[in-house]
Structure formats: structure tokens, C-alpha cells
Amino acid sequence: MMRRSQIGLLSRLLLLVVVELTPPAIPVPMRSSPQSLALLRARDQCGRELTAAQRLQLDRMQFEDAAHVRHYLHCFWSRLQLWLDETGFQAQRIVQSFGGERRLNVEQALPAINGCNAKTSSRGSGAQTVVDWCFRAFVCVLATPVGEWYKRHMSDVINGNA
């Protein structure tokens, strides 16, 4: 009888030691989608010249009318090949790049993006550069439901949740 209780005690002690010595589970970081990685790469490449405060402002989705913001946005969208200087935002490519019908209301997104391209374009007028046009078109899109979706999505990408 004594032997049985010693074996039981020994097995419990051994179990306790094994549990204590087992390292805690290491959290595995989420794997970002190729689209999210492309967004982060463009963000990093185009943000090289920004100060920490400017970068933080953009990461918070605050887009003031300033030269560094206009140049950053033009660089970002051009790098992703979703902005062409000749035609503006590529609405169909944007919808597809951001998940298509699964993630965006296409019937809402296409007219909003194309409408902002048209409203903000001043072709034939030398007063506006393509960088200015990109900024104004982007700000216009931000004022739509598509812009609200974009802000949420980019926040998720930046925070590693997409």
C-alpha cells in the first residue's frame, strides 16, 4: 500500500515538474496578406522623408493640406499602381486590390472614386499639378463611405490586423 501511494505521489510530482518546465506558448504573429504587405511596403517607401510626427499624423488618417502629405499620397498610390497621372485613381483596380465585392460595395465604390476623379480634375489648367490632383481626389474619396472603409482598413493593416 505504501508503495502505491509513493508511486502516485511521485507521478504527481513529475507531472508538476513537467508542467512547470514547459515553456509558455509563444504567440504566433498574424500573417499579413500580400495586399496588406504591398500597402505597408508602399507606406514605408513613401514615408522615408517624413518626421516621426508627420508619420504618426498619417497613420492616424489625418491628411492636412501640406506639401509632405500631398507628395506622400501621390507616391503611395502611384507605387501601388492605383493612381495614374493621366487618368487619376484606377477605380476598378482599387476595388479589386482591396478585396473586390467581398469587402467593398462595388456599386458605391466605383461611382465615388470615379466621381472624385472627375470633380477634382482640372485638365487643361496649369494651376494644378498631378500631385495636387491626387491629394484633392483622395480627400474627396475620404468624404464618402468608401473613405470611411479605407480608414478602417488601413488602420487594421498598420496595426497588423489585416
Give your account of this protein's structure.
The protein is 64% helix and 2% strand. The protein is globular and about 95 Å long. Strand 1 (83-84) and strand 2 form a beta hairpin. It has helices at 2-21, 34-46, 52-59, 67-79, 91-97, 106-120, 130-142, 145-158; strands at residues 83-84, 88-89. The longest helix is centred in the first third of the chain and has 20 residues, at 2-21. The termini are far apart. The chain has a two-stranded antiparallel sheet with strand order 1-2. It has one domain: Pheromone/general odorant binding protein domain (Recoverin, domain 1), CATH 1.10.238. The protein is an all-alpha fold.
Helix/strand layout:
Elements: H1 2-21, H2 34-46, H3 52-59, H4 67-79, E1 83-84, E2 88-89, H5 91-97, H6 106-120, H7 130-142, H8 145-158
Summarize the structure.
This protein is 64% helix and 2% strand. With 162 residues, the chain is mainly alpha-helical.
Q: What is the correct CATH architecture?
A: Orthogonal Bundle
**What is the name of the CATH superfamily?**
Pheromone/general odorant binding protein domain
Strand order of the largest sheet: 1-2
Computed structural class: mainly alpha
Largest sheet descriptor: 2 strands, antiparallel
CATH topology: Recoverin, domain 1
Report the portion of residues in β strands: under 5%
Shape label: globular
Mean pLDDT: 83
Give the low-pLDDT segments.
13-29
What is the number of E strands?
2
Number of structural units classed as domains = 1
Order of helices and strands: HHHHEEHHHH
User: What is the end-to-end distance?
Assistant: 60 Å
- Count of individual helical segments: 8
Helix content: 55-70%
Name the CATH class: Mainly Alpha
Q: What is the CA-based Rg, rounded?
A: 25 Å
